UniProtKB/TrEMBL annotation:
GO cellular component, one term: plasma membrane
Transmembrane parts of this sequence: 53-76, 88-106, 118-137, 143-166, 178-198, 210-236, 248-274, 280-299, 319-340, 360-378, 385-403, 415-436, 448-472, 526-545
SUPFAM superfamilies (UniProt xref): MFS general substrate transporter
GO MF annotation, one: transmembrane transporter activity
Protein name: Major facilitator superfamily (MFS) profile domain-containing protein
Biased composition, class Polar residues, residue ranges: 27-36
Length: 553
């Protein structure tokens, strides 16, 4: 498969170029390489204010995807009181994650089909899921809507990354990718705040989903009229031929495997005991699907190697594997702090969801600073390894400091620790997108985008799932001795859910204080988990390439 451009006279359907010369395609420079005295020609067919609006519309889908990823954290109690079915409550978050595992399939599809129309299709799919959630008459409909929104959300996010890959040059791409990091961080932080605002107002929790429609409507003209039609196939193919190039078997196996992994890691030790038949079945099925995925990726007579879902040749490139692992670790750390810092303040300071969300602003502010600085400086010298080394070191230090936090630790100290982590995350959370694309041939750009996107999404899911399991099981162990014998696990789970729960409100002041201290101690194991991830990231960063990427203008 080769990359080509298809241009029409209409700028809204012009084809963007990926790279031109061989050195730009591989992204590596050598001492013999001649310096680039002139900036490469722009790969865009839209410029000025039109490009500004188009770029904002691409960031809007990242914002919506990350917003929807966290918004239910603050409105679950309201949803439960309206729809009931407490036994299905955990599926509200899990279902969105399950849908999001389609990100690799969508990334592959963007390399075959017209990016614009597939992008718009996914936006519509996401909005349909949001409508189903907002209008849900029962919990089953809510779960269905979350799955649909997850599938469409990861598809439009992958589409925005693909658009940036083909509409920006290598020198400018890190800066634009930094904007993606900013949009993701803001959406993740504002999700609980916006959700709580609607839940506590006359708008009700349903507007936490309907707001997606309003934001999408604002940018709809840009999606339709400004974004160009782009096809990355070198040889014109019919729709039938394009479908024949799609690896449907591997897509199904991959989706089933990631679904099993997500459910196994979320429910084992919480909903199901580790030695229960349900938990064992999930892990066994996961193992079978993993073997099937490996076999089908290596040997699949119905689909050529270049069109198979998983780019197996990436596994022969240690640096690309390293960058994928780095993306998973740093994304997991970012989402972990988005979840657990507000939870810490909710327990220790009695913050409402809106107040606890505001406590994240120092973390997000330094994340934004780190992303902008690395995005601006990295293209000038082409060095990317130092950003990973310094960033992961800051994460490790910050998480180590968070381990020392007690119930009565000053908020200013906690803010200081979080900004260290935020700066470290910002330094390299989106760097891998540009670096990966600079290291591969032009025809592999969609695979590079998909690789980074899938490690980001699935890595964050896995990272958070393990953290959640650690936190829940440790908290149960610490809280159980403080309560009367034979207290139900359901009651303890409600205590862990937050201080606003009916279970927590039923405690006496003395017992409530002891429970808060126990939960705070339980969070120490979560900080250790994040610290270990930062340390692993630091060690891996030492093995990244020391070559200079040829991305300077």
């Amino acid at each position: 498969m080769t990359t080509s451009t298809e241009q029409t006279s209409d700028t809204s359907s012009g084809q963007a170029r990926v790279f031109e010369d061989k050195e730009k395609a591989t992204g590596l420079s050598t001492p013999e390489s001649e310096p680039q005295n002139e900036a490469p020609p722009s790969p865009r067919t839209i410029h000025g204010w039109k490009w500004g609006v188009a770029y904002a519309s691409l960031l809007s889908v990242t914002f919506l995807f990350s917003l929807d990823n966290t918004i239910v954290a603050a409105i679950q109690p309201s949803i439960l009181s309206t729809l009931g079915s407490v036994e299905l409550l955990a599926w509200i978050g899990v279902s969105f994650s399950l849908g999001s595992t389609c990100v690799l399939a969508w990334s592959k599809a963007y390399g075959v089909f017209d990016i614009k129309y597939l992008f718009i299709f996914n936006i519509i799919l996401f909005e349909v899921g949001s409508v189903v959630c907002g209008a849900a008459p029962n919990m089953s409909a809510m779960i269905l809507g979350r799955v649909i929104a997850g599938v469409g959300g990861c598809g439009m996010y992958s589409g925005s990354l693909t658009y940036l890959a083909v509409m920006t040059s290598l020198p400018e791409r890190p800066v634009y990718n930094a904007g993606v990091a900013v949009a993701w961080g803001l959406g993740s932080v504002l999700g609980p705040v916006v959700g709580a605002g609607f839940a506590e107002s006359g708008g009700t929790w349903r507007w936490g989903f309907y707001i997606n429609i309003l934001i999408g409507a604002v940018f709809a003209p840009s999606y339709i009229f400004l974004l160009p039609a782009v096809t990355l196939q070198g040889v014109a193919t019919t729709l039938k031929e394009k479908f024949a190039m799609t690896d449907f078997v591997n897509i199904i196996v991959f989706a089933a495997g990631t679904a099993c992994f997500n459910m196994a890691i979320v429910f084992s030790g919480t909903t199901y005991a580790w030695d229960s038949a349900s938990a064992i079945a999930l892990w066994v099925v996961l193992g079978v699907l993993l073997i099937a995925q490996i076999v089908l990726s290596l040997w699949h007579p119905g689909v050529s190697k270049e069109n198979r879902l998983i780019p197996v040749h990436f596994f022969k490139r240690p640096v690309i594997l390293n960058l994928g692992m780095q993306m998973a670790l740093v994304s997991g750390t970012m989402m972990g702090f988005v979840y657990y810092i507000p939870l810490f303040f909710a327990f220790t300071r009695g913050d409402a969801p809106i107040e606890s969300g505001v406590r994240l602003l120092p973390f997000v502010a330094l994340l934004v600073v780190g992303a902008i600085v690395s995005g601006a400086v990295m293209p000038k010298n082409g060095l990317y390894m130092p950003w990973y080394v310094v960033g992961s070191a800051l994460i490790t230090i910050g998480c180590g400091l968070m381990y020392t936090v007690e119930t009565d630790t000053s908020p200013s100290n906690v803010y200081g620790y979080t900004v260290i982590v935020g700066l470290g995350v910002g330094f390299y959370v989106m760097a891998g997108l540009g670096v990966n694309q600079a290291l591969v041939e032009p025809h592999d750009v969609p695979n590079a985008v998909g690789w980074q996107a899938v490690t980001q999404v699935i890595g964050a899911i896995a990272y958070l799932s393990v953290a959640g399991s650690i936190f829940f099981n440790t908290a149960v162990q610490n809280i159980t001795p403080l309560l009367p014998p034979n207290t139900s696990i359901h009651f303890i789970a409600e205590l862990i859910a937050g201080t606003s729960s009916d279970a927590f409100q039923s405690l006496s002041p003395d017992v409530a204080e002891l429970v808060i201290e126990a939960i705070t101690r339980s969070m120490r194991n979560v900080w250790i988990w994040f610290l270990s991830g930062g340390a692993l990231s630091f060690v891996l960063s030492l093995f990244l390439g020391r070559d200079r990427l040829s991305i300077a203008p």
